[in-house]
Amino acid sequence: MPLSPLPYREVKRKLESAGFSIISQKGSHVKFIKSTIVGTQIAIVPNHKEITIGTIRSILRQTGLSVEQFEML
Question: Are 65 and 17 in contact (CB under 8 A)?
Fold first, then answer.
């Protein structure tokens, strides 16, 4: 299933179920963090009504999640 634009609340729910937690917020951008054995992963997510496909792809690159993993969450 290809990616589609999602609301911030849905992206937040998926990242939290993947083990990420909110660490800070500056303006409308929220910083999610996850500590692993390899290191720390950080993703910056805009708190917008709708997050576009390109931004979701950027979030996936930052988190190391594949599209399939993200869709399953």
Answer: no
